[in-house]
Amino acid sequence: MLHEIEGKFKDECGVFGIFLNNPENDIDAARTTFYGLYALQHRGQESAGIAVSNGRRINLYKGVGLVSEVINAQHLEDLKGHIAIGHVRYSTTGESGLVNAQPLVFHYLNGMVALAHNGNLVNTVELKKRLATYGSVFQTTTDTEIVANLLARYSQDKMEDALAKCMIDMKGAFALVIMTEDRLVGVRDQMGIRPMCIGNLNGNHVLASESAALDTIGAKFVRDVNPGEIIVIDKDGMRSQQVINSPREAHCVFEYIYFARPDSTIDGINVYQARRSVGRQLARECGIDADLVISVPDSGTSAALGYAEEADLPFEEGLMKNRYVGRTFIQPTQQMRELGVQLKLNAIEEVVRGKRIIMVDDSIVRGTTSKQIVQMLRNAGASQVHMVVASPPTKYPCYYGIDTSRREELIANNMDTDQICDFIGADSLHYISREGMRDALQKSYPFFCDACFSGSYPIPAESVEV
Ligand code: SF4
After folding, report:
1. Who contacts 150 (Cβ-Cβ below 8 Å, separation ≥6)?
2. Pairing relationship of beta strands 319-321 and 345-347 according to DSSP bridges
3. Where are the domains positioned within the chain?
4. Residue 325 has what pLDDT?
5. Which of 258, 267, 402 to mutate to test the pocket of ligand 1 (most atoms within 8 A of CB)?
6. 61 close to ligand 1 (CB < 6 Angstrom)
7. Which of 121, 248, 448, 450 to mutate to test the pocket of ligand 1 (most atoms within 8 A of CB)?
8. pLDDT tens profile 51-65
9. Domain 2-247 - what CATH class?
């Protein structure tokens, strides 16, 4: 799989929702959701789906694959209605496949509900046990189904009250979009671990995982959904309920380092500027004598530009990425697998030959990919390769919706920096310090979750199914 070749933390999920105030509006809810999901494709490539309400019932189309593979023009024609939600998925909790594709649509006491979820609950075992004693049965292995069952359990209450009770029960990271026949709801966990923002498209409300999706459909950014807040949008407009006031926030710092699009702004921080600032900080911390700076494209590029700027060195494209390797990439044969990263990246010999290279990447997970890239640069004639990493050593797994390797597979859990440098075959290896990253992002750590570097988990993982 592509991700195995990349050796990166795996993306999570993306959610999108739109409510059209006027059903006669010439904006098409399903089509807009399609383009919103298209903009969020980097957050999940295994399945995609769109559910639409016409005010009387909810229709759904979902499948395994990229948004453009799953949803075609005929599906969009068939998905008529004025409210829509959509989801792109990379499997974290639950196996991949159609059964776990979202949105999930179900009937409960008050009608139909569609749910799409980004994140991971950390008390799923306890919640499932509790729900099972009330007679709940589970068809999928997703957290989303647990949320659906919780919602059904509180169906005597009106939707906002039921959701408020669910929020108190649910521990962990979640950004949810929920649709009934007549309303759209957005919910964000109490620490804001996973992102969600609100947009306005010609007077119509939109919810999205990232602001880049708003730009793509021509919507204006309104604000982020606050941690612990429920946003309800119906024919009377938008209203907010602040259900939980957490003493701290814990926005996932990896969104800024790697996951999110550089053109997104999340919780007041533009991702591109954050990465560039981290690159500048790295240059101040490292002080390496070299000829040029290159990046491992694409997620290392903004930081590499910042590094080059601060170090007053040229930035060049020393590695070229094949941008057309998609999810449907045919499983490589053993011989091709051995080629590893070359399927995805190639060095430009004319750029790197005879040069002392600083190579910037966003993170090192297992180290095998970095090792191959360093070797690739040496084969192309680089005289020195210094690896610079725009995050601290990744030592701990994530329980909040990011598919990290297991702890024992994380190279920084097993080796110190010098040993990792030897393993990847670089001339030197530098990680940004935690303090440096905090300074670069201009926020103190309680604003962020950085548990995969620090082991300091903002929400204890009480009972996680693995
Ligand atoms: S543990 Fe790491 S990847 Fe997971 S939410 Fe925290 S910062 Fe993000």
Report:
1. 127, 131, 165, 166, 169, 170
2. antiparallel
3. 2-247, 273-441
4. 62
5. 402
6. no
7. 450
8. 999 999 999 999 999
9. alpha beta
